[in-house]
Design brief:
alpha/beta; Rossmann fold; seven-stranded mixed β-sheet; about 45% helix; globular; binds S-adenosylmethionine
């Protein structure tokens, strides 16, 4: 049983694009971190995902969370207030700057990497190629917006779904791809990744049409989709 319910309550008024499922997945991933490396988030905005990572870490081993973002309004801004309100200011270190600028100086091993910064294909590929090498073997990566954003979708298709470097690939409804980094995966892992990708494609195609037509998914479709992904997407 997940202990995410109080976190869901806490983030419900924080603006952002994370679904509850995605927030819970980040929370659980952070909770599982042992301290072999730190947690890094690229793209924090108002701190919705940072709160999930920070409180997950608090429920686990208290691993430090580094939140990389220009943090334009950090001094008096909502990010700071939201982090303080969640009681995780001691666990979260804001790293002010663009991911491309700060990556060279970041010299700690990473146990969990969450990427939700620039969604331009070139930038996402750069983030992947510069940050993922810092993730320890057995560590986790999570990319947001891998359904409807072409650039992110293309990068994870090449670098995760078709890769020999990841196992336990899963898709969290609505748009997050999660995977565990390994030295070399097996044929079975690759088959699993392809199956998840195919399911994600169907989800992406159906939801794109419905989103265009109706603005967002009708409730019953969303509920069936969620159930389907609980069975298939994990
Ligand atoms: C989609 S928002 C992040 C939302 C946040 N993860 C959440 O769940 O609420 C994207 C954020 O990434 C930041 N950003 C954009 N490009 C970036 C880059 N290259 N490096 C770091 N942050 C970046 C933006 O300033 C913005 O705050």
């Amino acid at each position: 049983m997940s202990d995410f319910a109080p976190v869901r309550e806490l983030i419900k008024d924080v603006p952002g694009w994370l679904s509850d499922e995605e927030g819970e997945a980040l929370y659980e991933l952070a909770k599982r971190c042992t301290g072999e490396g730190v947690i890094v988030e690229i793209g924090s905005w108002k701190g919705k995902s940072t709160i999930c990572l920070g409180l997950g870490s608090r429920a686990g081993s208290g691993v430090q969370v580094f939140a990389v973002d220009p943090h334009a309004d950090h001094r008096h801004g909502e990010f700071k207030q939201n982090i303080e309100r969640a009681g995780i200011a001691d666990l979260v270190t804001p790293v002010k700057g663009m991911s491309q600028e700060v990556v060279g100086e970041f010299d700690q091993p990473i146990e969990l990497l969450f990427v939700d910064g620039s969604h331009e294909e070139e930038d996402v590929r750069h983030d992947f190629d510069t940050w993922v090498p810092k993730v320890v073997d057995g560590g986790a990566v999570a990319f947001h917006d891998t359904t409807w954003h072409t650039g992110v979708r293309r990068v994870v298709a090449q670098r995760i779904y078709a890769s020999r470097q990841f196992r336990d690939v899963r898709f969290v409804i609505g748009s997050t791809t999660v995977a565990r980094k390994v030295f070399e995966n097996t044929a079975r892992d690759r088959l699993h990744a392809r199956r998840v990708q195919a399911t994600k494609r169907v989800f992406g195609a159906v939801t794109s049409v419905l989103k265009k037509k109706r603005g967002w998914l009708p409730g019953p479709v969303e509920r069936v989709g969620r159930r389907m992904f609980n069975l298939v997407g994990r």
